[in-house]
Amino acid sequence: MPISTPETVFERELFSEKFVPFNATITGTNSHTIWDPTTGTKFRLKGYDIKVAVDTSLDATGSVTLGLWDNSNSALVAAVAILREGAAKGERYSDRADLREGVVSSTANNNLILQGHSTLGAGVIRVAGVVWGEEV
Questions:
Q1: Which end of the chain offers a freer environment for a tag, N or C, measured as fewer CB atoms within 10 Å?
Q2: Are 122 and 42 in contact (CB under 8 A)?
Q3: 73-90 pLDDT tens trace
């Protein structure tokens, strides 16, 4: 009688070699560079843990999506917070993601940028967190 053995499945383990902590103040339409990869390389974003606090109430028309972008407004990599219209001082948002194998930037030398998809008006938000991944 044949003996059967369970099939073994191996999943490639991807380790992160780069951890980038940051603190940023976002106002109006400005952005903040989080990760500036080494010349000639691309970032592979594998995860993030981000906390957002409204410091000055937003007077934007409509909600504002705060996201991680592949270069300035080139391509949205991850939406980390959706701030409601008129978000008041003291409101807090947080997001954490494990992107497993990661998202690779579209072009070498592109930065990972934190930016809103539209203006915050006179609002001010403070953002702190860490992103991780590797340069490829």
A1: N
A2: no
A3: 678 999 998 888 888 899
pLDDT tens digits along 9-27: 555 556 789 999 999 998 8
Instruction: Report the distance separating Cα 108 and Cα 27, nearest Å.
Output: 28
Structure tokens of 39? 């010349």
Q: Is 106 in contact with 64 (CB distance < 8 Å)? A: no
Best CA proximity match to 87, nearest among 72, 68, 66: 66
How far apart are alpha carbons 87 and 81 in whole angstroms? 12
DSSP string, 41-79: --EEEEEEEEEEEEEE----SS-EEEEEEETTTTEEEEE
Beta carbons of 47 and 131 less than 8 angstroms apart: yes
Sites in the chain below the pLDDT cut of 70: 1-14, 60, 72-73
Strand pairing partners for 124? Answer: 27, 56
